[in-house]
Design brief:
alpha+beta, Ribosomal Protein L22, Chain A, three-stranded antiparallel β-sheet, about 30% helix, about 35% strand, flat
């Protein structure tokens, strides 16, 4: 008795890549995700490669993973791919203490994010 196979989360002409526990706040990572939404894959790779934001390198890795999934797992044509969805979610938050004056302590929050990129094949 095995479990039934889960239905695919995306359509037949789409591929998905997810990255968990990215060490930045979702608000900062969402700025990078906004810059690639709806772009062709080649333009999105160029955008992330030349971005000045530190976290763009991680986002580029997620995008490359989605492209590889599309090519190898779903046999999609790379030249017709575009970024259909790029969204960010909240991850865990590490709580740390920072020493302040008069023996007090201040809480420092170190947030993590999750990023999901879906690439789809553009139809004629």
């Amino acid at each position: 008795m095995s479990k039934t196979k889960d239905a695919r989360r995306v359509a037949a002409n789409e591929a998905l890549a997810v990255c968990h526990s990215i060490r930045t706040s979702p608000r900062k990572l969402n700025l990078v995700a906004q810059s690639i939404r709806g772009l062709d894959v080649s333009k999105a790779v160029a955008e992330l490669s030349f971005s000045k934001k530190r976290i763009a390198k991680v986002a580029l890795g997620v995008l490359n993973s989605a492209i590889a999934n599309a090519e190898n797992n779903h046999q999609l044509n790379i030249d017709k791919l575009f970024v259909k969805e790029a969204y960010v979610g909240k991850g865990l938050v590490m709580k740390r203490m920072h020493a302040r004056g008069r023996g007090r302590g201040a809480r420092v929050l170190k947030p993590f994010s999750n990023m999901t990129i879906i690439v789809a094949e553009r139809g004629e």
